Structure formats: C-alpha cells, structure tokens
Amino acid sequence: MTEDVQKHSVHTLVFRSLKRTHDMFVSDHAKSIAKDDQSHKLKLGVKLKADYSAVLHMPILKEVKDRVYQQPSSVQDLSYAQTGDDPEYLITGTHAYPSGPGLALTADTKVHRNPSEAGVHSMALALPPSQAKQEAIRTAASVTDIHRHIGGAERASALSIMEGGTTRNSLVRKVPTIPKPQWHPPWKLFRVISGHLGWVRSIAVEPGNQWFVTGSADRTIKIWDLSSGKLKLSLTGHISTVRGVAVSHRSPYLFSCGEDKQVKCWDLEYNKVIRHYHGHLSAVYGLDLHPTIDVLVTCSRDATARVWDIRTKANAHTLTGHTNTVATVRCQAAEPQIITGSHDSTIRLWDLIAGKTRATLTNHKKSVRSVVLHPQQYTFASGSADNIKQWMFPDGNFIQNLSGHNAIINTLAVNSNGVLVSGADNGTIHLWDWRTGYNFQRIHAAVQPGSLDSESGHLRLRV
Fold first, then answer.
1. What is the DSSP letter of 186?
2. Residues 431, 203, 378, CA angle at the centre, nearest 5°?
3. Are 395 and 379 in contact (CB under 8 A)?
4. Which of 272, 292, 315, 343 is close enough to 367 for a disulfide, judged by CB 3.0 to 4.6 Å?
5. Are residues 388 and 334 part of one domain?
6. Is residue 355 located within the same domain as residue 225?
C-alpha cells in the first residue's frame, strides 16, 4: 500500500529549494574565484587601450622613476620585462628635438618598457593601502557578524577563524552625533490686533518697519502702525477675498491680488489704484516683487504664474508647467530668480530670462502652500502637510526634513537669527532652529472672541 504523499504549497516548496541551495553554497560564497592569468592579461590590455591610450606614448617622469628606485629592499627585485622591439609594449616619447621645457629626452626616457607582472605585484604589496581600501577594511563585516547570520554548522568554522578571542577585522562604527541647536529665546504673545471682519489672508511689512499692511476676506486692505497696532488706513476696491499684498522698497507702491482675478497697484501718496494687471483666468493666490528690477510675479488657481512689467503692465512671461493651483511664489536676485509651490505637490525653480522651468522638485507628497527664502543663506524651505523641507539653491538639492508639525502648513517665515516659524490651519505655531531643524517651541493661538474653532488657523506670518 502506497503511503500518502504530503502536499505542500508552491510557496513552501520554493523556499525549501532556496534553503537547500543556500546550505550548499553558504561555506563558499565568500571565497574569491581563482585567478586566471590569461583573462587577467587580457583585462589589463583592454584597460590600457581603452583608458590610457591617449598617454601611452608619453615618457615616464623623472621624479616617478626616482621614486620607483628608492623603494625598500623588499621591492628591489622589481624587474622589467624584456619584450624586445614589440611595439605593443613600447611607450615612446613624441617630443621633437630640442625637448620641451622640464622634460629632457635621454636614452632612458626615449623608450620605456612596462614592468613585469611579478614586479607589479611586489610593488603593490609594498605600497601603503589606498584611502578607499582603508575605508573598505574599516567597514568590513567582522567574524562576529558572520557568526550571527549563518547557520549552526557554519558557526564552528567561523569560530575557528578567530585568533585568541579577537577578530582580524573588527567592525568600527561611528556613532552618529546630533548637532547641537543654537539657543533661541522663547517667543511670547505681545499684542492682539482686531479690526478685520474676515480671515486675514495676507500680510506685508514695509521696508522701514514703520507700518504693515493686511489683506482680508472682508475684501479690504488695512494699514496699521507697527509700534502701536493702531489702524491708519483702510483701502477698498477688491470685490472678493484679498489673497496677497506686497510693499515695494523701490517706489511708494502697494500691490494686491485677490480671488476676484484682479491684480492692483496702489499709489500710497494718493491712496488709490493707478494700475491693473489683467490676464489671470482664475483667482490670484499670491504675489511677490523682484528685489532688483521692476518686475511683479503673481500665481493663480489657473495653474500659472505670470511675470509683469510694473510700469508698462505688460505680461512679460506666463510660466506654465504646474498641473494644479499655484499657491505661492517667491522672487530673489540670484538664480533661480522665481520659485513657485503648487497644489500638484511640486516646487518649480524658474529661469526668468527664458521663462522656462529650471528644476522641478517632487519630494513632497502633499500640496505645497508656502515657500520662504532665507534672508542670508542660499537656501529656502517649503511647507506641506507631509513635512517642512529645506533645500539648497541653485538646483534645489534637498537638505533635511523638519517633521513634527502634523497639520496643513499654510505659511512659513524665517528671520536672520535662524528662527523658522510655521503656521498651520489648526491654530498651532511651531518655531524651529533653521540649521538643525530642532523644534524649540510650540504655541497654540487663542481663538478670537466670537469666532469659531475652525477659524483659528494661521494663514500668513511675518517675522
């Protein structure tokens, strides 16, 4: 009577086969393959012709020749192969007489013959190990690591390698050091300024630090005294939420944009609109002024950013490439001069002259709602619901993540003391050390009397 064959799944059979194969070859997998002389010579010949054909005709330098002959006694048996007049092994000088300066052609340097293979090996053994080899030895796995990862049968053979209780190559691990953040004094709430009847969606401080301006969902723009917090002026003209304001340091102009698709230029000497910039097909979510030239850049829900000549109102460039709302834009004097963040989770660095994308950063997984430039370093930060990320100009090389603000980051601000502030839609503010990314303070803002909890979010910050 035949015995019933035990059935196994394909998954079990495959792993059994893999285990048998592993057990068969585990003792030999670390052994090097025996060296084949013919293959080695062929490999060297191919490498000489492929990598060094351009310099094979050059004579050996005198200082290199002297260094060879001054090797220790262990390599004094360095012999040179006698290959006759075989042109394959000759390296001849090509300098016409008289020779070039500093390189005299003599009977020794006219023709140079390659060293024999035995001489090459003895020379290699006598030379000190290279930096790469030292690093490889320093990070090589020790016998203890092998003993930890192989089976019981192989452990005895691994233990026999150990000499006097010590291993030949011990694993040297560098303990990662956490950089010490700079100490920053804690921030405290100084004053609450009330006056707007809707969300404050934008804020800008004038270059002289005398006053600041805010734009709100109540469709007004208000100018406040910075020291006392008193209202100085209210400007009306937008018919929808004011999403962006900027004060020029080159002229007495204030620029604003809103969800009514309008971009306005206000003359602060007359407190009235003197220019309109028409072109966006949907709500304008942000704007910024170029620091050195009379250029205004706006970004919109129509997935574009537009570059305007302030004086002529001409649309110099329409920056296309984003596939969703462009939520934030920043300008700087150095390249790249324009940086945009979008709800398509990407950041784009733009070439202002060509009007084209210079680099696209795709590290974020959520909408990028804010970008801030460091006032002194050649770096910037971007805020999203997944992380705050720091980048290096000009190519947008990633520096580090600032994790811990688990909310939708609506706004970022940074000052010259290295303090980065992030504001979220849940009413929380986190303060970070810019260099190390250390979160040294967290603040939860109190809700304004009469407002809802959902209205406590931070939409714009300036430090």
1. P
2. 55
3. no
4. 343
5. no
6. yes
Closest CA to 72 of 131, 118, 125: 125
Listed in sequence order, the residues at least 6 apart from 210 whose beta carbon sits closer than 8 Å to its beta carbon are 225, 226
Q: Is residue 284 part of a domain?
A: yes
The pLDDT value given to residue 83: 40
Residue found under tokens 């495959």: 14
Residues 6 or more apart whose Cβ sits within 8 Å of residue 189: 443, 445
Task: Write the pLDDT tens digit of every residue in 413-443.
Answer: 999 999 999 999 988 999 999 999 999 999 9
C-beta of residue 205 within 8 angstroms of C-beta of residue 199: no
Q: How far is CA 430 from CA 12, 179, 363, 386, 442, in A?
A: 52, 20, 22, 15, 5
How does pLDDT run across 281-323, given as a tens digit for each residue? Answer: 999 999 999 999 999 999 999 999 999 999 999 999 999 999 9
Q: Is residue 134 part of a domain?
A: no
What pLDDT, in 10s, does the model give residues 219-257? 999 999 999 999 999 999 999 999 999 999 999 999 999
Q: How much is the pTM?
A: 0.62
Same domain assignment for residues 314 and 296: yes
- Within a domain: 265: yes
Token code pair at residue 176: 């990662």
Q: Is residue 319 situated within a structural domain?
A: yes
Q: Are 404 and 344 contained in the same domain?
A: no
**Residue 409 CB neighbours (<10 A):** 28
Domain CATH number, residue 410: 2.120.10.30
